[in-house]
Amino acid sequence: MNNELTIEISIPTDDEGYVLLQCEHCGTFFKTTPSDLKDDGILHVFCPSCGLTSDNYITDDVLELAMKKIKNTENDMVYDVLKGIERHNKSGVLTFKAGKRPKHESEDPIRSGIDAMEICTFLCCKRTAKIKPLLKMTGAYCPFCGVKNYEIE
Ligand SMILES: [Zn+2]
Ligand SMILES: [Zn+2]
Question: Domain of life of the organism in this record (predicted)?
Answer without folding.
Answer: Bacteria
